[in-house]
Amino acid sequence: MVDHDLDQFIVFDTSERNWKSLNYQTHIPQSHSCKPIPVAASGGLVCYRTDSGNFLVFNLLTGSCRELPPGSLDGESQNLHAIAMYSSPTYPSSFKIILVLGKSPNLAFRVFDSTRSTWEDEVMLIQKAESSSESHVAGDEILYFLSKAGDVVATNMQRSASKQYSSVLITENGELVIYFLSESGTVVACNLAQKTFFEYPRFLPIYFEYSIDVVECKGEMLVVVLSEFLETASLRVWKFSKESQSWQQVAAMPPSMSHEFYGQKMDINCTGCQEMIFICASSSEFSRHIMFNMAVDAWVELPKCYVDGKAKEFTAAISFEPRPEATVVHKCV
């Protein structure tokens, strides 16, 4: 779980359905002006990004840590779109960190390979034909409009720090594909094997207010959308149909649960784990943590997590599989 303070390792155990605290916060290097932020995970390893743009890889169960060599290019942090992580199922200590960067239509990716302990050369991506008539992958222009309440709203995505560069990495037909959200909220897919990227059609018109996130569930890319319409709020899960080239709804939260989000300016940050989707819904007023089980179409609001008698308010979550055998051999300083 990710909160504003980043001062504790707190997890929700889906097998035992309870909160746990991991006591390895002292292993985080203190040489940085800001605390590292968790940005990706794979297998038993979690990747953190420092305020300087470098990366740390942790096993939160054992406390082992590795600081990666600097690999950023000039201006990369300003043009970074997504961070993904891949670890081998058979060799859990072997991992790759993948960055998607650049300015549309000149997107590229870079890979850190732990077996070689080095950053590979940048690889350019070619844009495939789009279903929509205009591209929003990395546009610098921000549009503004008036909401129904009379507020001025910007069309660029406002994300929590942990989810700013979040993505999902899925193996499709033996090829790695990274999915992430553009600044304007469209879904972008990067096929690393084919060296191509594609922007999916937009869900709602650009002037609609809604919160959106991309998740991986049962090996598929899904999108969770919280929107408001006719004086109520709805939270729905969507899947893109390649046959019809359109988004299709696959699940919806019961209206009795989602209605309390209406008018709250809620932001959702989600993560997938097997057949489950974990949803952090938060605003300046309150927060909710919800688990959705796609296999049985069940939505459950989780109990509050209390630390020292105070309820924690989490802004995001990252899923990982506890694996003590996933070791990182280099020390963090």
Explain what you see.
It comes from Ensete ventricosum (Abyssinian banana). By secondary structure, the chain is mainly β. The protein has one helix spanning 255-258; strands at residues 2-3, 9-13, 18-22, 37-42, 45-49, 55-58, 65-67, 80-87, 95-103, 106-113, 118-119, 123-124, 126-127, 144-146, 152-154, 168-172, 175-181, 187-191, 196-199, 210-217, 220-229, 232-241, 246-252, 267-273, 276-282, 287-293, 298-301, 306-307, 310-311, 314-316. The strands form nine sheets. Strands 8, 9, 10, 11 and 12 form a five-stranded antiparallel sheet that branches. A hairpin with a 2-residue loop joins β24 (267-273) and β25. The protein is globular, with a radius of gyration of 19 Å.
| Structural class by SSE content | mainly beta
- Strand count: 30
User: How many angstroms does the end-to-end distance come to?
Assistant: 24 Å
Contiguous helical run count: 1
Protein name: KIB1-4 beta-propeller domain-containing protein
InterPro entries: Gal_Oxase/kelch_b-propeller (IPR011043), KIB1-4_b-propeller (IPR005174), SCF_F-box_component (IPR050796)
Domain KIB1-4 beta-propeller: 24-253
